Fold this protein.
Amino acid sequence: MAVDVEKIIQSIAHGDQESVLKQLDLYNTQFAQCFFFNLEEKERKKQRQLEEFRRNKVRDYVPDSDSDVGSGDDDDEDPDLVLRRRLAEALLRFVRTRLQPSVLSVSLRTLRILSRDRQALAPFITNSAILTLTRLGGIKAPPVSQSDHAEEKTEEEEEKVDDVDSNPVNNTDLHVQFTDAAGPCVSPASSHTPHCMSNITEMERTDAIHGVLARGKRDVREEDDEGTSEWCDDGEVWRKEAMKTLCNVIYNSQRAQERASALSLLSGLSEKLKDGLHSVSPPSGQFYELRLLFLLTALRPELRRQLQQERGVSMLTAALELCLEVQWADMYEVMAWDSESPPVRKEASQRALEILKVLFNVTYSSHTQQPDEEDAALYRRLAAVLRHCLLLRCQGEELTEELQGQTVNVLSALPLQCLDVLLSARLSEGSRESGGVNMDCVHSLLLFMEKRLDRGHKLKERLTPVLNLLTESCRAHTETRHYLRQQILPPLRDVALRPEQGDTIRNKLVRLMTHVDTELKHCAAELLFVLCKENVGRFVKYTGYGNAAGLLAARGLLSGRSAASQHQYSSDSDSDTEEYRQARDRINLVTGRVEEPQPDPMEGMSEEEKEAEAVRLVSMFNRLSRDKIIQPMLVMPDGRLAPLCGRMRNSTLEEEEEEEEEEEADYEEEVD
């Protein structure tokens, strides 16, 4: 049965709470899974534009996303859109009055559904609306001054003419929504995003912040909310609904982001999270507070800086410790996690993920800075907690891997000198070690990297952070390099296969060295090069010259001489196996394997024929170079490449002239 929205608005105006409750229940049931209210109108507009294109052979613009629909004058002619705006405006006034708890909860749920529609956000992005949702969500917010009211009124009048946020957020690719049963919901807004999966997952580093997924898919997080709402107190229910609505509004509207920054929502959120640190158990709805904090720091650069200056890293580290029930064995060492202990609860894992994403937003540039003594101590404490995160097990393999992925992101953002605590844990029974140093954390990173290699999906976003982290760790810590070299580059025995053939970690990394993505193949090659102590001969031995040429050319090492490295490596030797020594003389350095003997293509040719063939080949190369089909290069004494075209052209000019004269003579003979 269709819901009469006009009737709901009239009931709200009359203050008939019983009627409003009944009608909004029907409305929420009908639109619970609706994320594209104007889908039919969108299809009609596309059809009209297509017909116009066929008539005029002119195509001005065809919208390819729902956010483009209704951004023009046709929005005001859409009666459903006008009704949704009126309903949102009426409900926002309604929830400020004294309502029964059940009526307030169902009203906020309707507002949350309406907040999914970007074109209906005009009533949501006023100061009073944002502050109303903030206070209902349990967050303290400053009062609105008279000047703010005047500014708000002026902007409301402008919005009625210009519409609301017809252009989506342009500094990220985020779009967050919340379903009514499963909490936050996301879906791809473009093919660009990570991560990605059907929930807010592995964030890629775009403009130095976390990216989120986009629209239309259910998020697995907090999926028990609806089931628990029956026994939760009413205050908890409406606080969560208000926070979900606020998250939608902040994400979907750039103006709302600006107003949230001006209204100091970040300060209220920080205060609420600090209060939660002193409670026995995490306060209800903290997940959504963290989600909102994540959105604010992802979308507003000034809020990232503000949170960092207000010791946000310390606060978030403490929140992460509380969430994971961390117990300290030493100053920078967390009590070892017992494999027989129960896995981390789903709710705690989800909160930890949000904390890690906010931490990355706040610390993403810390690795480029030299921390002072106080900051270094803070980062070391955080690194110790992150080490604990790498070794934990969550309820579900996907959650475990996602927690590790977000942990790797934060570790890659921290100053390298503060990561020594990853190796400082004491050895225990069953620990992996190298040179007497605990390698459990490094082994966990290795397994995580191998999982990502095996997935073969969105490799750049998923692999680049862990590859860079392992590379820099190998440069900084000899024990880490020794251990990873044993695992990734064990002594060569089978030289019958190419280095990129097979299922070992070395084979998988060598395959990445010829990947189409330049950054990814450089990261993979750099890790192997560091494991070889930046020795060109050893690098070519394990990867083959063909695979290694890209990195060697970029570093000016094609001459085969190793350049002076600023990194000091230990003097351990690379001992060859008996199998490798026997086959060494028959290995093709380009392919990196033993090749079958090939027949000599010049066998049986006289010296004159060989010389003529050589001249013909040089002439062909010169023509290809002259037509800019290829560009022959020369390895200079310093190991770098330089164009060879000038030298080749000078050396073969006479041969080309002779060929042209012979062709002209042949042509004249044919004419005669």
